[in-house]
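Sample 1 of the test manifest.
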Amino acid sequence: MSSAELTLIFGMFVVTFGVRYVLFGMAGRIHFPAWLSSALGFVPPVVLTAIIVPAVLMPKGTLWISPYNPWLLAALFAFLVALVRKDLLTTIVAGMLAFMLLRFGIGL
Amino acid sequence: MTTATSVGALRSTEFIAGAKATFPLIVGAIPFGIIFGTLAEPSGLSALGALAMSLFVFAGSGQFIALGLLAAGASIPIIIATTFIVNLRHLLYAANLVPKVRHLPQRWRVLMAFGLTDETFAAVSSRYLRRDDIETAHWFYLGSFLAMYGNWVLCTAVGVALGELFPDMTQWGLDFAMSVTFIGMVVPYLTSRPMWAAVIVGGMMAIATAALPHKLGLIVASLCGIAVGLSLFMLEKRKQQGLENRV
């Protein structure tokens, strides 16, 4: 491992652990107003959606809204499965099967 | 003596429950970890570097983005700054969990902070949604974290090995595993109109801001979605209070 890699990994460790630890470390000394606590409830689903949507609609870097986009089709299918079944493992398996079938089965 | 034994039993029950609750998320992370390991060397990170990153940084999307930037020839300070920005969402997760950790000693908080990932946050949040007792909940957290961590490091090692055996594995499209896992995590949250609005706005803004440098679009889009969701939530609450006052 080169010294550049060591620097990179050390730097990434510091910023990642720092962000995760700062509030835990000072727990009890920072109080959030009610509106901020409500806002935090929206964070996980919104951030995850902001990661998913570009990954699915722009899988190759540009916007691709088309019935021939296997990422989009499989994601819509997984979304429907999740709405009906509400089970994570079922959603993952169904979504991956749909994607593999579209991409490598019929070659989209 | 009996009390000590039953506390120990309670702890191990919580630990195992934490690992079990995280299992579906671990399945989703397996291809992700393997692909990270596989992509490392083609992106310019050594096998040892990939393992060290999974061991010490332990941040799935942050590590992927780092690989992408390394491959694109970005400088080390840019990669570190981007990791910081992408990980800001953990600040918001931590804020959510503060009421559950403030009674614990620092050594526990350090350990829990290191293990704070999207997956463990999701598993632990649903534990707190069901039961809000916090005496042994940190053992549940530890079970979730160690299951996730062990799997992530193992999958990175498998990926590094596979990458050397089958150099064309990166063409298999397993990157979709991350998207489909996140879809399964988001849907259970969609139980109110403000939440639907927040998620739709966040998704649309992520497309609109995709061209912003350093993955800044992720932060901007999230803040827009949260602002819309929070405004609608406040409006609905005010309307409800107004109706109650009239009666």
